[in-house]
């Protein structure tokens, strides 16, 4: 639970109430913020915005008094970096939900926020192979250790009496370790615990390598496993840390024929696109499914103990530590007895330091995989993937030089065809009204020779800089967008791509600029005349 005191913000009371209402709607059951961490991040975006307004001359009384100049002034105070873009996008997303926000400010919010291209580059091919090899060595060593001691435990369970004295003591110690998470111990007078003396010779010592590491991964070894998962799937540290135990697809067979279902969650995304599942096959050595099989094998004992100590926890990456710290130096960390979960940036960094690498490799691994190998978004939108990961990457830019020269003009034309080009205005200015917008200059259209009346389809009005869209046009355009979506499900894909796809994409761009609240309100205001006009337009029967 968290408390956010909007009364402390240095802005007029009506503006405070509006911000608090918009903020509460995002936090509510139907909102898109599903964790305190997300709302905390949003609060630290809203608060600097309010402080700026309070120090700015002529502070608006409420959302409806926001101006383009004021919004642009705040934008100029933000540094061109991802952190400030997050603040910009968060505040813009909140204010867009208020129907009173003017179209001009909405259009200003839609302008691209460019940030610095500096940041950690992807690994070079040789570096990437070296990191994977180091992680594989660390995890493989731990896996073989756990596999060997698991076999000893299984053999003892089958014949606890027939083993020799040391093997019997080893089996007893491993049984207690597998059941409780610790080898047999006795309490000391000072309250500490020590290994029972009779098991020391069998185990070979009292250190972690001789005791709990026989069946459990350490934190650093789990960091190495997380690096391997990131290198295989292109996931970020949080998603890997929160991975539930993969389930086996029914009927997929055993061993090399087994298929796992991997459930993924990207908490920073909204309801749409937040959850994802992937089927991963174990097709043999070096396959992604084999890595999951080995991860399950290496963590099976730890997960069994945790399921007894704290039923309901479902985490693949479960590891053991020497001394339970109850969250000490790890704020918000979940611990169950001596067991911890996941592998955050700090855990991966500790592993990297242990093998002579600098810093945490998780972000660079993820960028390398998604940008240079998978070449597709890894739980990001395509726009975020392109602007944040692909375009700033030096290896991508170097490889793209010969391609850019050949395809730049085609790409520019394609982008213009799918981006909303009309101007958003608050009131009509005497333009000629068409089926979709107002036309300010129908004799100088970019689609027909200058001096001639525009003969282009009215669907192209949204791609024309001469077009003017006022709030009066919103219902008709929203209805057109919905009609095109319905049409998409019934027409041949080739026909859709040729005739309707670009118009649909431009309207989707308009919807993102106006915001969900304005778009939903427009849909509720669609009139009978709007429906008739759109029907005529789609059937080729509309004429001025």
Gist of the model:
The protein is an alpha+beta fold and 544 residues long. It is built from 20 helices and 12 strands. 30% of the residues are buried.
> What's the number of extended β-strand segments?
12
The poorly predicted ranges are: 326-332
The number of distinct helices, counting runs of at least 4 residues, comes to 20
- Largest beta-sheet details: 4 strands, mixed
In words, what does this structure look like?
The chain is elongated. The chain has 544 residues and is an alpha+beta fold. The longest helix has 34 residues. It has 20 helices and twelve strands. The two termini are 58 Å apart.
Task: Name its key features.
20 helices, three-stranded antiparallel beta sheet, 544 residues, elongated, alpha+beta, single chain
What's the arrangement of secondary structure elements?
Blueprint: H1 13-27, H2 36-55, H3 68-76, H4 82-96, H5 103-109, H6 125-158, H7 165-180, E1 185-187, E2 193-195, H8 200-203, H9 219-233, H10 237-241, E3 247-248, E4 259-265, E5 275-281, H11 288-309, E6 318-320, E7 335-336, E8 339-341, H12 345-354, H13 362-373, H14 382-390, H15 394-418, E9 423-424, E10 432-433, E11 438-439, E12 467-469, H16 474-488, H17 493-499, H18 501-514, H19 516-524, H20 528-538
Parallel strand pairs: 9-12
Antiparallel strand pairs: 1-2, 3-4, 4-5, 6-8, 7-8, 10-11, 11-12
Helix pairs in contact: 2-4, 6-7, 6-9, 6-11, 9-11, 9-12, 9-13, 16-18, 16-19, 16-20
């Amino acid at each position: 639970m968290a408390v956010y005191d909007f009364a402390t913000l240095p802005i007029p009371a009506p503006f405070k109430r509006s911000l608090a209402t918009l903020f509460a709607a995002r936090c509510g059951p139907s909102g898109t913020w599903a964790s305190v961490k997300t709302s905390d991040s949003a609060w630290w975006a809203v608060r600097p915005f309010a402080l700026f307004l309070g120090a700015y001359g002529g502070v608006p009384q409420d959302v409806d008094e926001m101006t383009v100049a004021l919004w642009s002034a705040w934008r100029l105070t933000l540094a061109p970096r991802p952190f400030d873009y997050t603040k910009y996008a968060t505040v813009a997303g909140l204010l867009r939900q208020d129907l009173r926000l003017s179209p001009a400010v909405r259009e200003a919010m839609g302008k691209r926020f460019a940030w610095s291209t500096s940041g950690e580059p992807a690994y070079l091919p040789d570096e990437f192979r070296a990191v994977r090899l180091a992680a594989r060595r660390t995890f493989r060593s731990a896996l073989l250790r756990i596999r060997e001691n698991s076999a000893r435990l299984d053999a003892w369970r089958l014949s606890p009496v027939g083993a020799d004295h040391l093997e019997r003591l080893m089996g007893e110690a491993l049984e207690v370790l597998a059941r409780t998470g610790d080898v047999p111990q006795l309490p000391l007078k000072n309250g500490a615990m020590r290994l029972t003396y009779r098991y020391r010779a069998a185990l070979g010592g009292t250190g972690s390598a001789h005791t709990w590491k026989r069946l459990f991964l350490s934190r650093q070894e789990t960091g190495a496993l997380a690096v391997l998962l990131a290198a295989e799937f292109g996931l970020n540290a949080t998603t890997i840390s929160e991975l539930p135990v993969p389930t086996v697809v029914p009927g997929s067979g055993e061993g090399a024929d087994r298929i796992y279902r991997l459930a993924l969650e990207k908490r920073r995304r909204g309801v749409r696109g937040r959850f994802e599942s992937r089927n991963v096959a174990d097709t043999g050595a070096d396959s992604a499914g084999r890595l999951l099989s080995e991860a399950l094998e290496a963590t099976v004992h730890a997960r069994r103990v945790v399921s007894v100590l704290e039923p309901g926890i479902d985490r693949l990456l479960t590891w053991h530590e020497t001394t339970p710290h109850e969250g000490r130096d790890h704020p918000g960390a979940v611990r169950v007895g001596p067991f911890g979960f996941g592998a955050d940036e700090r855990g991966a960094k500790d592993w990297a330091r242990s093998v002579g690498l600098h810093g945490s490799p998780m972000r660079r691994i993820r960028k390398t995989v998604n940008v240079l190998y998978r070449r597709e978004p890894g739980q990001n939108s395509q726009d975020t993937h392109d602007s944040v990961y692909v375009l700033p990457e030096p290896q991508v830019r170097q490889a793209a030089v010969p391609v850019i020269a050949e395809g730049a003009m085609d790409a520019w034309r394609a982008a213009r065809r799918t981006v909303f080009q009309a101007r958003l205005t608050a009131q009509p200015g005497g333009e000629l009204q068409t089926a979709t917008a107002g036309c300010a200059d129908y004799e100088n259209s970019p689609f027909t020779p200058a001096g001639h009346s525009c003969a282009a389809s009215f669907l192209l009005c949204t791609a024309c800089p001469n077009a003017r869209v006022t709030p009066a046009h919103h219902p008709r355009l929203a209805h057109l967008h919905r009609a095109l979506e319905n049409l998409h499900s019934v027409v041949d894909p080739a026909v859709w791509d040729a005739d309707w796809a670009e118009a649909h994409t431009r309207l989707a761009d308009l919807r993102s600029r106006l915001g969900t609240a304005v778009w939903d309100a427009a849909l509720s205001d669609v009139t009978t005349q709007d429906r008739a006009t759109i029907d005529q337009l789609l059937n080729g029967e509309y004429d001025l």
